């Protein structure tokens, strides 16, 4: 009967929900244990000047180095940690590791290169992130200009006034602010004139090389780049995988890119030999372009 089917479905649904909640509970207690055991690490992925191929900065991307499962990607645990607020514990841990790394480079006499960290909107509700980053950079004795703060576009749309103020505070304190995943949500170009970030990272979806969507995506991308230049914004294209994408981006005046075409994210130790050779790095970072204009 209709009613029977309905109850059946509900029954399965409830069982599914219950299972999911139990799984989440297990995962959460594992995450707590993993934090205590220092199983979280960060991978780094270079951000490049596509005209010269030089590295202008790195992005830190968290990984769970699980004793049994091996390297676990953030997509498998971040959504849960965001839904219960635990993400903030993890992010504090990651930011601390990143600042520690910058400190170690300087202490060893190397020229440091800027590192971008990801900030969840939950972090912004839970604490004064500007104070947190200021404490970290002062404790590790590093220049705030070495830290770029990536805040995903959707956060701006949801908490416009709060985030706008946070961006102002972060920049006043000397940090660089990136708007991550630009174009992934419902933001409009209009938002860019009111939210005063240093850099927008254009979402991968505009680089999608598919027939119909390609032409439109490329057209929009070209418009974003042009508008960004007019408003003094720097632009990094995310998810650059192919030579054709690099060529297109350079043609429309997008100078910076990040993606598998250049480097995959990897343990920072694997990059260190590269970073220690000054000819691979443009230490002027993302400001170089501005200096040349
Ligand atoms: P995101 O910040 O937008 O980072 C870019 C993602 O694109 C990374 O995925 C990176 O590995 C991937 N990627 C880079 N180049 C390419 C490419 O050429 N092709 C493709 N297909 N993908 C590319 P990942 O490392 O899995 O991270 C996913 C998301 O998880 C990040 O997106 C960020 O939102 C979040 N995340 C990562 N680390 C942290 C963290 O420490 N804290 C917080 N709160 N979120 C983080
Ligand atoms: Mg990011
Ligand atoms: Mg992104
Ligand atoms: Mg993303």
Bound molecules: ligand C2E, magnesium ion
- Which spans have pLDDT < 50 for at least 5 consecutive residues? none
> Which radius of gyration do the C-alpha atoms yield?
21 Å
Return the structural class: alpha/beta
Biggest β-sheet description:
8 strands, mixed, barrel
Kindly report how far apart the N and C termini lie: 73 Å
Task: Report the helical percentage.
Answer: 40-55%
Which percent range describes the beta-strand content? Answer: 15-25%
Strand ordering within the main sheet:
1-2-4-5-6-7-8-9
What does this structure look like?
With 293 residues, the chain is an alpha/beta fold. It is 49% helix and 19% strand. It contains twelve helices and ten strands. It has helices at 2-36, 78-83, 87-107, 121-126, 129-139, 153-158, 160-172, 191-194, 211-230, 243-251, 268-275, 288-292; strands at 40-49, 55-66, 70-72, 115-119, 147-152, 176-182, 199-202, 234-238, 256-258, 266-267. It has an eight-stranded mixed β-barrel, surrounded by four helices. The longest helix has 35 residues, at 2-36. It is globular, with a radius of gyration of 21 Å. One magnesium ion binds next to strand 6. This is EAL domain-containing protein. It comes from Hungatella hominis. Residues 24-279 form the EAL domain.
Helix and strand arrangement:
Layout: H1 2-36, E1 40-49, E2 55-66, E3 70-72, H2 78-83, H3 87-107, E4 115-119, H4 121-126, H5 129-139, E5 147-152, H6 153-158, H7 160-172, E6 176-182, H8 191-194, E7 199-202, H9 211-230, E8 234-238, H10 243-251, E9 256-258, E10 266-267, H11 268-275, H12 288-292
Bound molecules: ligand C2E and magnesium ion (3 copies).
């Amino acid at each position: 009967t209709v009613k029977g089917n309905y109850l059946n479905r509900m029954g399965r649904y409830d069982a599914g929900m219950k299972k999911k909640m139990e799984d989440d509970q297990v995962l959460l207690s594992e995450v707590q244990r993993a934090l205590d055991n220092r199983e979280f690490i960060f991978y780094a992925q270079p951000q490049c000047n596509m005209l010269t191929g030089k590295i202008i900065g790195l992005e830190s991307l968290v990984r769970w180095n699980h004793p049994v499962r091996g390297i676990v990607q953030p997509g498998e645990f971040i959504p849960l940690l965001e839904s219960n607020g635990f993400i903030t514990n993890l992010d504090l841990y990651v930011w601390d590791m990143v600042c520690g790394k910058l400190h170690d480079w300087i202490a060893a006499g190397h020229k440091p290169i800027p590192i971008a960290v990801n900030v969840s909107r939950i972090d912004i509700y839970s604490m004064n992130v500007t104070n947190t980053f200021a404490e970290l950079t002062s404790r590790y004795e590093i220049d705030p200009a070495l830290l770029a703060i990536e805040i995903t576009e959707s956060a701006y749309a949801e908490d416009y006034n709060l985030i706008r103020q946070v961006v102002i505070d972060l920049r006043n304190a000397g940090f660089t602010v990136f708007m991550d995943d630009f174009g992934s949500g419902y933001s409009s170009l209009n938002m860019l004139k009111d939210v005063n970030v240093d850099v927008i990272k254009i979402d991968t979806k505009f680089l999608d090389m598919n027939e119909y969507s390609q032409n439109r995506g490329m057209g929009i991308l070209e418009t974003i780049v042009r508008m960004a230049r007019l408003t003094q914004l720097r632009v990094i294209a995310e998810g650059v995988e192919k030579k054709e994408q690099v060529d297109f981006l350079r043609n429309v005046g997008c100078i910076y890119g990040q993606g598998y075409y250049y480097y995959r994210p990897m343990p920072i130790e694997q990059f260190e030999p590269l970073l220690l050779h000054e000819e691979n790095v443009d230490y002027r970072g993302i400001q170089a372009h501005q200096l040349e204009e």
